[in-house]
């Protein structure tokens, strides 16, 4: 990978990690209604890339279902989760998306599920369970439960996306924005009475956060990621995105003072190792480590 492209990927991962912290700040400390926050985010995304709504790929119902799963479903439930869950724990548990996508691909698409991938799924599950474990036993807090819902919906959208052809990155962003806003606006009005007034009363900090999340993170960050995926093999790019949860953990400890003890460290290491095993073949892991070692010199 060219050094310029590697630097771009690092920057994108840092943007995604920063967005996790910003979202936590908005919904937990500024008390913005999470559904309203997500709705405004997708309205801005839709407005920014509105011209790409033309000539959608068929079938349209599948595109809309994918857009709702990967947009409204995945992001809204993650924002709800961050009201109570720490960014660090949410980042670790969200790594279940990779094994969940792998399992759903096996169930719905008939893709092969070999021993290596089963090992990766098992390790990721063990790591996530370690994060949700406390000295008194297993506890699934409300926040982390919503993370799991976000993971399942995002994974389902990813699997269904494999059956779509000819969807361009900005075109997909446009339909995610429109479909998600259409779902989230009535949901916010129903389940968050007074949410519009509460969100708008926060002022410039709310708008700064939502514009950053919509334009910088979604429009720029995700488009740059799709561009990198088109230039390089997914088996190289996907594992490198593990920088996102690592950066989220670091920023969470420093900025939001997330607790990070030996149990969390163990869970993070095991979960990320499982994701790496799923995403790459053994020879690719060695090549990746050698490549990263060379970049560090």
Automatic annotation (TrEMBL):
Bilayer topology term: Multi-pass membrane protein
Domain EamA positions: 8-132, 143-279
The organism's place on the tree of life at top rank: Bacteria
Listed Pfam families: EamA (PF00892)
One cellular-component annotation, GO: membrane
Keywords: Membrane, Transmembrane, Transmembrane helix
Residue ranges of the TM segments: 34-53, 60-82, 88-110, 117-133, 139-160, 172-191, 206-229, 236-256, 262-280
Principal place of residence: membrane
UniProt-annotated location(s): Membrane
Keyword Nucleotidyltransferase assigned: no
InterPro entries: AA-Vitamin_Transporters, EamA_dom, EmrE-like
Family, similarity comment: Belongs to the EamA transporter family.
Protein name per UniProt: Drug/metabolite transporter (DMT)-like permease
């Amino acid at each position: 990978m060219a050094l310029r492209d590697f630097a771009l990927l690092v920057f994108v991962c840092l943007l995604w990690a920063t967005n996790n912290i910003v979202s936590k700040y908005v919904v937990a400390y500024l008390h913005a209604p999470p559904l309203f926050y997500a709705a405004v985010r997708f309205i801005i995304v839709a407005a920014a890339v509105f011209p790409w709504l033309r000539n959608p790929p068929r079938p349209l119902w599948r595109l809309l279902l994918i857009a709702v799963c990967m947009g409204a479903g995945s992001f809204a439930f993650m924002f709800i989760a961050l009201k109570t869950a720490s960014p660090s724990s949410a980042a670790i548990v969200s790594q279940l998306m990779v094994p969940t996508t792998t399992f759903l691909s096996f169930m719905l698409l008939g893709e092969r599920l070999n021993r290596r991938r089963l090992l990766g799924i098992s390790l990721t599950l063990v790591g996530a369970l370690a994060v949700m474990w406390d000295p008194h036993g297993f506890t699934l807090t409300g926040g982390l439960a919503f993370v799991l819902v976000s993971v399942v919906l995002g994974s389902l959208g990813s699997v269904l996306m494999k059956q779509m052809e000819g969807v361009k990155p900005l075109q997909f962003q446009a339909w995610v924005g429109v479909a998600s806003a259409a779902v989230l606006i009535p949901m916010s009005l129903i389940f968050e009475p007074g949410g519009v007034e509460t969100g708008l009363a926060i002022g410039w900090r709310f708008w700064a956060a939502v514009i950053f999340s919509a334009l910088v993170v979604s429009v720029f960050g995700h488009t740059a990621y799709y561009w990198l995926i088109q230039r390089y093999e997914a088996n190289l790019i996907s594992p490198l995105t593990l920088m996102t949860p690592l950066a989220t953990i670091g920023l969470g400890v420093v900025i939001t003072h997330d607790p990070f003890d030996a149990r969390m460290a163990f869970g993070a290491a095991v979960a990320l190792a499982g994701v790496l095993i799923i995403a790459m073949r053994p020879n690719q892991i060695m090549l990746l480590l050698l490549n990263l070692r060379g970049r560090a010199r």
